[in-house]
Hints:
This protein has helices spanning 3-13, 16-28, 35-42, 46-58, 77-90, 102-109, 116-119, and strands at 33-34, 62-67, 70-75. It is mainly alpha-helical. A three-stranded antiparallel β-sheet has the order 1-3-2. Helix 1 runs antiparallel to helix 4 (46-58), helix 2 (16-28) packs across helix 4 (46-58) and helix 5 (77-90) runs antiparallel to helix 6 (102-109).
Amino acid sequence: MESTAAVRALSALAQETRLAIYRMLVESGSAGLAAGKIGEALRLPPATLSFHLRELSHAGLVCARQQSRFIYYSPDFIAMNGLLGYLADHCCREDGAGAPANDATRLSARMPSEPRLIARSGPKPVVHPKRRPT
């Protein structure tokens, strides 16, 4: 991935509404969602939704397909994995030495093939072991 494409993708995601749209699309998987469903869920007027989807599309993060009278949007997981790889390779260097940091190397090496894993955010729930009766 070129730096201009990375900047374009990061700029598209650096806006609250577009990030919410993208997260919603990632959760829907490769099947995607109809534009109307996205607008309803996020309570966005059609013109506003169209603007944000166009920005994500121009950044290469979503793909659109027409099916009957509806336009379905889905995330481009290859593009997102490319962006994450670019960040790991070019932005996570250890002490400026030029070699990727161990954590960044492990991150790019274990990129999930399952798209839904990318959508997870926040801490994992803590499961407490059952206490034995005393």
